[in-house]
Each structure stands twice: as C-alpha cells, then as structure tokens.
UniProtKB/TrEMBL annotation:
This is Enoyl-CoA hydratase. It comes from the Bacteria. Belongs to the enoyl-CoA hydratase/isomerase family. The keyword GTP-binding does not apply. It holds the Pfam family ECH_1. Keywords: Lyase. The keyword Ribosomal protein does not apply. InterPro entries: ClpP/crotonase-like_dom_sf (IPR029045), Enoyl-CoA_hydra/iso (IPR001753), Enoyl-CoA_hydra_C (IPR014748). NCBIfam families: PRK06144.1. GO terms for molecular function: lyase activity. GO terms for biological process: fatty acid beta-oxidation.
Amino acid sequence: MSTSNSPKIDNFPNVTVDFQRKENIACLTLSNPKSLNAMTWHMYELLSEYLDEIREDSTIRVVVLRGDGEKAFAAGTDIKQFEGFTADDGVAYEQRIDHVTRKLLELNKPTIAAVHGYAIGGGLVLAAACDLRYATVQARFGAPIARTLGNCLSIRNYRRLTGLIGEPRVKELIFTTRLMGAEEAAAVGLVNAIFDESEFFEQVDQIATQMATRAPLTLWATKVALARLQDEQPLPEFEDVIGKIYGSADFQEGVRAHIEKRSPNWSGA
C-alpha cells in the first residue's frame, strides 16, 4: 500500500490516523503506539474527515480499519484527555463518538475491522460499527469502564452492542469488566472469523479484495436495509444519565486514579 502524509498533533507527534490505499481498497490505521492506540480527539477528527473523503471517492470500494503495531486495535479513548471534564463535556464527548460511529455505519461502502489485539471501550465501539470483524487468536474485546473510569456508553452504542451479542452478555461484560477472547467473540457472532497472526492482514486483504469486485450497489443496499431495521425504534432520552455520570465525583476519581496509577476508590456519587 502507498503511504500518505497523515496530519499529526504538534505535541503528540506519533499520534495519528494513517490513510493508505491499495487500488480500490482504503486502509485506515489508528496509531497511538505508546497508549495501545487509544483514541485522542485529533484521531477521532481525522477518522471522521477520512470517512468523508472516502464517501465521496467512487473509486474506493472497501474500507479496512486496523490498529498500529502488534498489541491493539484501539484501547478506548486516551484517558488523559478527561481531566477537568464536566457533565456537558461528557454529553459532547458521547455525541462526538456517536457522530464518528454513525459515519462508519452509514458509509456507502462496506467496512472491515481487522482486530489485532485489544478492542476495548472506544475500540470496541468502533469495531462494532464496522460491517465485518476479523480477529487474531490474541484479540480481546470488552468495555471495562466499571473498573477504569466509572463512565458509560451512549445509548446508541448500548443498542448496537446488544444487537450484536445480546443484552445478558453486554451486561455481564460491563458488570464484571472481563474481556472476551476471540474464540468466544466468534462463537457469539461478534467476530466473523479468526485468522492466524502470521497471515492475519493478508487474509483480511484477500477478503477486502474479493468484496471490492462485487456489485457496489448491492452491498450498499444491504447496508442501508440492515441499518434501517436496526434503527426502526426511536431511541429514548439518555443525555441526562450521561451528564450525571461524567459530572460525578466518581468519574473524576477514575481519571485521577488512572493518571496516578492506582485503583479508584468509588463512592457512588
């Protein structure tokens, strides 16, 4: 694949989303190597901008989303950014995530999440918004937010995850904070297939290449139909809950504990 010159953040020179393409396949690589590809605000913005470009580029037929390095797809959102967050900041943050995931969901061409390592928190949400998910044996999925920050997901992401793996499993993963292995993820339908690590990206590339030869309007119509079926029921109000969570003392304690490298002391307030 040809390498592009992706924009970077001045004070985070190694943090970016890299956009490469091979013929009619686009590859977006989440890259924050020092933090297991945890997403920064800038990375979310770049991802959003690239998805806009890809939507308008009729020569691109398939998109592959992956993580940089060997350890992670994406390990959530970079927690350092949450210092000083207010209730309004929390609502705006979840709206930002919804905005990006909806672009993935509504993209007019199929998307593949190539999960190599951890896909947790925001990483799980991004993978779940892709049309297909392939994983290595070492891949791990989950949302351990009840152990780390004491925050929550948006109601759209709760609904999407419930649709993929069922309500009892979503509750169990979040309540216990355990991570789901690749084999379990495949067994419950979250992952389409597991490939050996040594040939993982080659296998994903073969699938993307095959998909790129198929009728694009058929693929698009299928995406639209299934998205409309999932969105058939209107979503209830949830911003009051998000505001309470991100405006809580517990959330601030979770952020401080992460920065100070200790376990949080939850108060329930």
